[in-house]
Design brief:
The chain is mainly alpha-helical and 394 residues long. The chain contains 18 helices and no strands. It starts with 6 loop residues before the first helix and ends in a 10-residue tail after the last helix.
Length: 394
């Protein structure tokens, strides 16, 4: 892919891009399930909506990434995505409380916003290059910083005003993100024609045989994370907490992520990326297991802060591992497939199954099952990456 010209000229616009991405998403994502509950949807219906949004993202993400790698470049695709996401968010704001209109509008919004995270990641690893790719966390931490500050502020705001402003504020944040992409080089990374009849997706699968089994383990961990976090807000509210604690849980997690992401480069060099990811997955398991026994809403919130360690290690591990498993010319598609598995397909199962378990068996059973699934996923990743550069440290 090659670096962009100018070290700081490329780095600071990327840091700001991640900052805006984190702050904009904070207006909606932690509050989405409570927002749907406030419109009258029950837990199983909420799980259905969460699953539908993830399915829409899973279908749309490879199409966006193919367009980025072979036609328009990542920056142009991000601009188009931001514009259509604003329209989708406003449509959801006006969709009312009936299940079908809400489901359709939410799926449309998800399909439009699908490439934001994976293509931003692709831009970051492409800028850093192979020799500095482990420093990705020092760019990604700006998203955590933006998320952490914004989500606590939104929690305070929604505690007093209700969740009505969430979707308009999210649309505004996405609009700012889209405008900021105008400061990035339009051709970074440079698009190239696909060599497979399946497009860029076929190219990346053919050239990276370990990618799919690795993503299988990531899928299991991500299903657990999606189910646990998708219903954490309802757990907090059900134990007497309010939107402020929901926002505080997400904000504390983000603040914990920052130093861990900053340290991910030396940790990766010393222990290897396989150990980085597997440690993150096991910390997830410990947090979810703790939620099984904790009932006080403030304690649930404080325990959630440890999830920041898990997310920072697991997320940076996936991005760097995928960045090295796939050819540089297919960076957008490689990161997109990782996002489809972890950010789209996993929430389909996590949201749907989580809704059923939460409604019929209760939160403790949900969180215990999520902990067990993380352990299994960690074992799969450990086995798949054995004998590769990712299993070795200094």
């Amino acid at each position: 892919m090659g670096r962009w010209s100018g070290e700081e000229g490329g780095l600071w616009p990327l840091r700001a891009l991640f900052l805006l991405s984190g702050a904009g998403g904070a207006a909606l994502l932690p509050f989405f399930a409570p927002l749907l509950r406030g419109r009258g949807l029950d837990p199983e219906q909420i799980g259905l909506v969460l699953g539908a949004t993830s399915l829409a993202g899973a279908v749309a993400t490879p199409l966006w990434s193919h367009l980025a790698d072979t036609r328009l470049g990542a920056v142009r695709v991000l601009q188009l995505s931001a514009l259509t996401t604003v329209v989708g968010a406003l449509a959801l704001a006006l969709a009312g409380s009936a299940l079908l209109p809400v489901l359709i509008a939410a799926a449309l919004m998800s399909a439009c916003s699908a490439p934001e995270a994976p293509l931003s990641d692709a831009l970051a690893v492409g800028y850093l290059g192979a020799e500095r790719m482990t420093e990705y966390g020092r760019i990604r931490l700006w998203a955590s910083a933006g998320w952490g500050v914004a989500v606590i502020a939104f929690g305070v705001l929604f505690q007093h005003l209700g969740l009505g402003p969430a979707l308009p504020l999210y649309a505004f944040g996405v609009g700012l993100f889209g405008l900021w992409t105008l400061r990035l080089p339009a051709g970074a990374p440079l698009p190239m024609p696909a060599r497979s009849r399946l497009g860029a997706v076929g190219d990346v699968l053919r050239s990276s045989p370990r990618l799919l089994p690795f993503l299988g383990g990531v899928f299991l961990v991500s299903v657990a994370g999606s189910a646990a976090w998708g219903f954490l807000g309802l757990r907090i509210l059900g134990q007497g907490g309010g939107p402020f604690l929901v926002g505080l849980a997400a904000g504390l997690t983000a603040f914990v992520e920052i130093p861990v992401m900053y340290s991910s480069a030396p940790l990766g060099r010393r222990f290897g990326q396989r150990s980085i990811y597997v440690t993150g997955a096991l910390v997830y398991a410990a947090v979810f297991l703790a939620w099984t026994f904790v009932r006080d809403p403030l304690t649930i919130t404080l325990v959630a802060s440890a999830d920041g360690v898990a997310f920072a290690l697991a997320y940076t591990g996936v991005v760097v591992i995928v960045g090295r498993l796939v050819p540089a010319r297919l960076a957008s598609t490689g990161q997109a497939l990782a996002w489809v598995v972890a950010g789209n397909m996993a929430p389909i199962f996590g949201g749907a199954l989580g809704g059923v378990v939460f409604a019929r068996l209760g939160a403790p059973w949900l969180f215990a099952g999520c902990a067990a699934l993380c352990v299994v996923g960690a074992a799969v990743v450990w086995a798949v990456l054995g004998g590769t550069e990712h299993s070795q440290g200094a």
